[in-house]
Write a structure and sequence with these properties.
It is built from four helices and seven strands; from the N terminus they run ββααβββαβαβ. It is an alpha/beta fold. The protein has one domain: Metal-dependent hydrolases (TIM Barrel). The relative contact order is 0.15.
């Protein structure tokens, strides 16, 4: 999902994950096939490659999202943080937690907040 920030004229992709060969799930394959990007499956794209693709598509910033599904981390918060640290003006990290283990989830939030690892929480306190 992309949106344009009218006040700044920026195009922001509000939900994305890095392309990693270890993160291939049936639903990911289906989405890549439907979007015409199946040729990217089975690769590990670097942060620099992702920025290059963003530039070609006219996308200024991407919210890179960690992903935990029942029983498995698909994309960890640390992986997202690695991308964000390389291009902090281009990527905003969005954390995920394992909701099946609430105590573990709170510990993960404590570890990440304040965003020591390059992951932010898109929660308004206003």
């Amino acid at each position: 999902m992309s949106m344009t920030n009218v006040s700044s004229g920026q195009t922001i992709d509000a939900w994305a994950q890095p392309v990693l060969k270890d993160g291939i799930l049936p639903e990911v394959v289906r989405l890549f096939e439907q979007s015409g990007a199946a040729h990217l499956l089975g690769q590990d794209l670097s942060a620099a490659q992702l920025v290059e693709m963003m530039d070609k598509a006219g996308v200024d910033r991407v919210m890179l999202c960690a992903w935990h599904r029942p029983g498995k981390w698909v994309i960890s918060n640390d992986t997202i943080a690695t991308f964000v640290r390389q291009f902090p003006q281009r990527f905003v990290g969005v954390a995920a937690v394992n909701l099946e283990k609430p105590v573990e989830a709170v510990r993960e939030l404590d570890r990440l907040c304040p965003p020591k690892q390059g992951v932010q929480f898109p929660i308004s306190t206003r």
